[in-house]
Every structure is written in C-alpha cells, then in structure tokens.
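Changelog excerpt: complex records now keep ligands as SMILES alongside chain sequences, and the structure block spans every component. Example after the change:
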Amino acid sequence: MERTVNILGFAGSLRKGSYNKALLRAALELVPRDTRLEIFDLEGIPPFNQDLENQPSEKVKEFKAKIRAADAILIATPEYNYSIPGVLKNAIDCASRPYGDNAFEHKPVAIMGASPGMTGTARAQYHLRQCFVFLTCFALNQPEVMVPFAQEKIDREGKVTDQKTKEKIRELLESLVAWTNKLKGA
Ligand SMILES: Cc1cc2nc3c(=O)[nH]c(=O)nc-3n(C[C@H](O)[C@H](O)[C@H](O)COP(=O)(O)O)c2cc1C
C-alpha cells in the first residue's frame, strides 16, 4: 500500500495578489491521490544575520520544522531582476543555517513559477536550481513549469483559469510524488 506523501509548498512572494501564490493554491486542488500539500507563508521571516543564526526566530524554527517533517518541497518562485526574489533567498538561507543544520538536506524539491513576462521565471528557476547544489536537495528536472503572461492565465480573484497551466501543475505534482517515492525506495 502506498503511504501518504506530504509536500510543503511556499511561494517567494509576500504579495496578496501574487501569481505564484495562485499557482500553489491551484496545486492544492490538483494533488494526486495519497498526497497532502501544506502551504507555508514566508511573511515574518526576518532578514538573515549570521551573528544570530544560533538563536533563530520562532518563525524560522517553524519553517525548518515543517521542511523537515515534509517528504518533499514545492517552491513557486517569481523572477526579480532575472533572479529569485530576496524574500525567497533569505528564507532559504535562514533554513539552511547554522552550518550542519540545513533543513533542506536530501529533500526532493520541485519548482514552478509565474510572471507577466514572456520567459515565465525561467532565469529565476535556473538560479534557484544552483542553490539546490549547495543545499544538497534532490531537484526534480522535469517537467519545467514556467508560466509566462500570467495575467492572462490567473484571474483577478487569484484563480488559475488556464487549463494547460493546471495540467502542467498536475504533471509536476505527479512527477514530484514519483520522484519522492523513488528516492525513498518505496
Ligand atoms: C523588483 C522586481 C523585479 C522584477 N524583475 C522581473 C524579471 O526579471 N523578470 C520578470 O519576468 N518579471 C520581473 N518582475 C515582475 C514580476 O514578475 C511581477 O511583479 C510578478 O507579479 C511577481 O510575482 P508575484 O505575482 O508572485 O508577486 C519584477 C518585479 C519586481 C518587483
């Protein structure tokens, strides 16, 4: 019998009307059978200060505990200046420290991203993949879910209306679950 796969998802945006938060909300409705997706909001994670890395805030402690408890991670990243937003990088930095206490170690991880631009966060996603090398995450390579012209695919209520985008998210979730089970030897 397949056991439940628990995924923790977070978006690299604090914006209420975030397209990337919308992708995660859509994912809640598209998870495969025997899969649970919990969304974590990065709001409240303080700027990382290495002087204080041994006294993390409650929010960082909670974030690290949730990452550790999850079987897999799903990140929805915006693209800022051809890279990942500082909010996302800061959260990753906080959860990876102090040295030897990296919550992401050996976690299967998948990426998706939406932008009003024509490349749909492609450049940010490749920068994020670079971080996974030092984090020793097991990144899912395919499918790549890059959602360009997001304003045409997500409505004003923050609902993904585009069928092809929903299909890609469904495919990503199925692949992440298969990847997670493979890594666990299930
Ligand atoms: C500081 C900043 C830099 C941006 N740089 C890019 C960029 O390099 N590429 C891009 O496609 N969009 C860029 N944008 C537009 C974002 O894709 C857009 O604001 C998007 O809605 C952010 O994601 P969100 O909706 O999840 O908050 C930038 C926006 C900001 C605020």
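Residues 15 and 84 are 15 Å apart (CA to CA). The beta strands are 5-11, 35-40, 72-76, 108-114, 138-139, 145-147.
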